[in-house]
Design brief:
The complex is a heterodimer of chains A (231) and B (206).
Chain A (H helix, E strand, L loop, with lengths): L28 H15 L5 H9 L3 H6 L2 H15 L5 H12 L13 H13 L15 E4 L18 E12 L1 H4 L6 E10 H5 L7 E8 L3 E3 L9
Antiparallel strand pairs in A: 1-2, 1-5, 2-3, 3-4
Helix pairs in contact in A: 1-4, 1-6, 2-4
Chain B lengths: L7 H6 L3 H14 L5 H14 L2 H13 L1 H9 L1 H8 L8 E6 L4 E6 L8 H4 L9 H6 L4 H9 L8 E6 L4 E6 L11 H5 L4 H5 L10
Parallel strand pairs in B: 1-4, 2-3
Helix pairs in contact in B: 4-5, 5-6
């Protein structure tokens, strides 16, 4: 979807809040708890990593921008857990208010076996390897990113659509995020494609820059077919 | 209230994330879908075990052992696993090497993909719209203005926008004047920022 998350090439966000190189972990305990809730959501197979990313993208643009990083995670996880009937929204709303009022605490429950099972579920959720399908493109082929603007999830950022690039590597066959984010099966050959800066940014490009992305086969078409008119 | 009526975005706008995540956690724990020790373990793992020191050890080995360097560029996960604990089930890693005329920079414009198995949690700035928007369009200006990293004009920049489950780590050039240092001393020189590519060791000459 053409959401606010698709940030590549936008202007106007101001300076980067650089930390000077200091190592960071979680700033507050609740951020780590958000991470653990992510592990529980994927680990119990309520959602794939693509469904999780898409759940973040479904936030209204103004709210996405104003929320901090782990805040977005909590919003996205609540959406997935409610949609998959893992939690009751009424109980969630009531419990949130109880915590805000200082009238609740997180229950204690020990299960030393659980984390291993959750970690395995998370690894499965990230695992995109699929049975090899024969690739249509070879290393060195000139390709053009097909122009498309799907409503759902995609890993084809706006700034590469219609751009011409070159296949650098064939990465094997991998689950298509556009399908897996919506609970559908589907896998395609995946390619690392390199784009010249001038192709992406025209006369505003900086000299001596190239950008590489991993793009799935259905995102691409041969460059020859589009030389006349279609672009 | 039914599912149709509950809007998680509206709910989130009016309640702080700490209360919301504690409510989620509590409900999951009550269903035995999460446990207190799992929460503590996840937090402790990122606070104590997985961090940029892992990547630094890998880089220092590559600086001192040419055969290792070749293996690292060929198969990132396998080679990194020789030096540090890497969860190979959960990550695929490509290591890209800087050279006198080449500089690599890592970003994820769509979300926050990062080689966490070797570098730990991504820093806050890496996840901001400011970094994600500019890294692909004006990396040279971004590096100079925001990170004080001035790249010579004859150094090409290769930006890697992470769109699949494959993650990138930059292998910086070994800094000049370190010929006499052993692997442990070199580990201390490697920075997280150099492994993301916002810092660079050495100029355009070897």
């Amino acid at each position: 979807m053409n959401g606010i998350h698709d940030l590549g090439g936008m202007d106007g966000f101001g300076p980067v809040p650089y930390d000077g190189g200091t190592s960071e972990t979680f700033h507050e305990r609740w951020e780590g708890e958000a991470y653990a809730t992510f592990v529980a959501t994927l680990g119990n197979r309520f959602a794939s990593i693509d469904e999780f990313r898409h759940s973040i993208e479904r936030m209204p643009p103004d709210f996405y921008i104003e929320s901090n990083y782990y805040d977005r995670w909590v919003t996205a996880l609540a959406r997935l857990l409610v949609e998959n009937d893992a939690i009751d929204p009424e109980a969630f709303a009531a419990r949130t208010e109880a915590f805000e009022a200082g009238n609740a605490s997180v229950p204690e429950y020990e299960d030393p076996e659980l984390l291993g099972r959750l970690a395995a579920g998370v690894a499965d959720s990230y695992d995109s390897d699929a049975d090899d399908e024969s690739p249509s493109f070879a290393v060195g082929d000139a390709v053009v990113v097909r122009n498309a603007h799907p409503d759902g999830h995609t890993r084809r950022p706006r700034y590469v659509r219609r751009a011409r690039g070159e296949v650098v590597t064939h990465r094997g066959t991998h689950a298509l995020p556009d399908a897996r984010a919506h609970g559908r099966d589907g896998a395609e050959p995946l390619y690392q494609v390199a784009f010249d800066g001038a192709e992406l940014w025209g006369e505003d490009a900086e000299p001596g820059v190239s950008v590489t992305l991993d793009l799935w086969e259905s995102y691409l078409k041969p460059a020859e077919a589009t030389e006349e008119g279609e672009r | 209230m039914t599912d149709d009526e509950f809007d998680p975005d509206d709910h989130a706008r009016s309640h702080d994330p700490e209360a919301r995540v504690r409510a989620l956690q509590s409900l999951l724990i009550e269903k035995e879908l999460l446990s207190s020790d799992a929460v503590d373990d996840v937090i402790a793992t990122y606070e104590r075990e997985i961090g940029p020191l892992n990547g630094a050890r890998v880089v220092a080995r590559a600086w001192t052992d040419d055969a290792y360097r070749e293996r690292l560029l060929e198969d990132g996960v396998a080679a990194a696993s020789e030096v540090v604990d890497v969860d190979g089930d959960a990550i695929d890693l490509e290591v890209v090497a800087n050279a006198p005329g080449e500089h690599h920079l890592v970003v994820c414009t769509l979300c926050s993909c990062y080689p966490w198995a070797v570098l730990g949690l991504p820093p806050t700035w890496y996840k901001t719209p400011a970094y994600r928007s500019r890294a692909v369009k004006e990396p040279r200006t971004l590096l100079a203005e925001e990170f004080d990293t001035d790249l010579p004009a004859d150094v090409e920049i290769h930006v890697h926008d992470s769109t699949s489950e494959l993650r990138y780590m930059v292998l910086p050039q070994r800094p000049p004047g370190t010929a006499g240092m052993d692997e442990d001393e070199l580990v201390d020189l490697v920075t997280r920022d150099a492994m993301i590519g916002v810092d660079r060791f050495g100029g355009s000459e070897r």
